[in-house]
Amino acid sequence: MIKIRICLQTFEAMACLREEYLNLCEQLNIEPEPSVKKALKVANVSGCLSLKGDTSAMSVITCQILAKIIANSQTLSKLDFSNCMPPQGGFADLMNGVEKNKSVRELDLSSNNLQAGAALQLAKYLRLTSSLERIFLQWNSLGQGKDAFAIFCESLGANQSLQELDLRNNSLTEMSTEDLVRAIKANKSLKAIDLRWNQLGPGEGRVLLQAIQDSPRLTCIQLDGNLFNSDLTFAIEMAASHNADMIQLAQEWEVRCNILTRHTSQLEKRDEKRASGVRYLLQQQGQKLNVLNKEQKNEMIKVEEQLYVNRRRLDTMESLVLDKEEQIETLQEMNKSIQEDRELERTELAEQLNLLRDQLTSAQNLIHNLKLKMQEQEAETKGLQLENSHLKDGMMLHNSKCEDVIKAAEERAMSAIKNARQEKAHAEEEIKKMQKGYEEKLKKLDALREEMEKRSQAQNQTHLEALTAMKSQLQEREEKNMASWKSEKAELKSALEKCKSHLDSLQKVLQTKTDDLGKCQVTIAELKQVVAKEQEKNEILNRKLEDAARQREEAESLKSQISSIQSELTSLRNEKDSQIKQLAELVATQEKHFADLRFGEAERTGILCSAVSQYIAKVGASVGTSEH
């Protein structure tokens, strides 16, 4: 046992309950229980450790290990050890671990045959814990030890966190009623208690009823299966239900009071916000009005000064305009004289242009005549080329004729040769004679051919010489014509250049005159702009005056709005006062209603108490008669 406690003290807390259990079993060389492993696995997720009905696993060592795990855990909120039947030593160790835990809210130890020793352990736990809200102890034997149960009830009265207690079938006797009454009176957090199937009563029923009436938080008590009278049990249960109704009424009253206080605070805040906003708006508007009045006064002063300055400027501008009009008149006269001079110059230029145009037309005529002469020369050259081509054609015809004659002679000679060959056998001698004659004729024909060739060559040479002479003459004429045309062209170009220079000078004179006119127009436009600016300034001043009048109207409208806002504020205050009065009336009516309810409940309780007392008196009388 000493070794086990040392191991448990040296073990450190872990995050996973199942792993912690396995590690402890390894350290102690114990085989882990599968049901405990499963329960710890589920508890690690749900926060509920349940070993319900597992009697085989709850050994002393297992209880010690579970006590260590429960003491170190901060996630367990529910422990269910019902119907486990742990041994006495194991239960003590288990409760020691539960006492160290600060997160358990529900504990189920039903059906474990717990007796006086367990009652002492539970009393210790109830004194120490501040997180437990529900404990289930039904089907045990806690009432068998009177002293132990009294200590349990004292701890129950000292506890201020428990809300639900189940003590069904715990062998509670009439002697246990006093201890329970003290615990119920002392405890301020208990809301439900289950005392069914015990042996309470019948003598301490009134005391229990008075305790329930004195503890308004207890809203549910169950007493079936005890020795109390049915009317008394009904009265006790009705007292608990009356407590529940009163708690509900009190909660409703608190909710309504909270709603009313919130509503009134919201209304007050709204009214304060509105009032502060209206005050702020009034202050801002007053400040704006003061600033606007100051600005308007300053603007009026500035406007008057500007009007005075503008009047002076207008006077000076009028004098300037008069001077400018005189200058414009003089400029107009100058323009008229300039225009007359320009018209004269334009007429002279027109005459010069006409002369130049005449010269240009004469030059164009000369150029046209030259072009005609060139065309005639080209026609002559074309005629000579045609004659040359005709001569060439004649030569070709003459050559062709000579060739035809030669061909004819050759054909004749061939025919004669053929005839001679045919007649060769008959007249060889005659052939020889004829050959001689033909040879002579051939020589003559050759001589004639040579003469004809010489003649044709001589004629061709003469024609070629004539053509070359004609070409040279034509080239000389063309060169002379080109030289004369070039000289005329140079003269025309010089005349055109002179005309262009004269025109450029005239254009320069026109540009200078146009520049002078543009300057005069610019000065006139500047004067017009100055006049327009002065007019715009006058219009701006008029607009400012109109704006000042509008601002005065807006100030008057703002004053009217302020008065209307003040009237609205007064109406809102009146509405607020009326609402507060209505709320006070509602509160008074509610208080009267609750007072009536309390009075009715007191009458009912008095009637019930009188009925109970009468019933008890009757029962006592009947018991006395029976004894006699």
How would you sum up this structure, described in words?
This protein has 628 residues and is mainly alpha-helical. It has a domain at 2-267: Leucine-rich repeat, LRR (right-handed beta-alpha superhelix), CATH 3.80.10.10. It is 80% helix and 3% strand. It has a seven-stranded parallel β-sheet with strand order 1-2-3-4-5-6-7. α2 (17-28) packs antiparallel against α3 and α9 crosses α10 (230-422). The longest helix has 200 residues, at 428-627. Mean pLDDT is 79; it is low at 1-15.
Distance separating the two termini: 65 Å
Annotated CATH architecture of one domain: Alpha-Beta Horseshoe
Order of helices and strands: HHHEHEHEHEHEHEHEHH
Strand order of the largest sheet: 1-2-3-4-5-6-7
Mean pLDDT: 79
The level of helicity is: over 70%
What would a concise description of this structure say?
The protein is mainly alpha-helical. 80% of the residues lie in helices and 3% in strands.
List the helices and strands and how they pair.
Elements: H1 2-10, H2 17-28, H3 34-46, E1 48-50, H4 60-72, E2 78-80, H5 88-100, E3 106-108, H6 116-128, E4 134-136, H7 146-158, E5 164-166, H8 175-186, E6 192-194, H9 205-214, E7 220-222, H10 230-422, H11 428-627
Parallel strand pairs: 1-2, 2-3, 3-4, 4-5, 5-6, 6-7
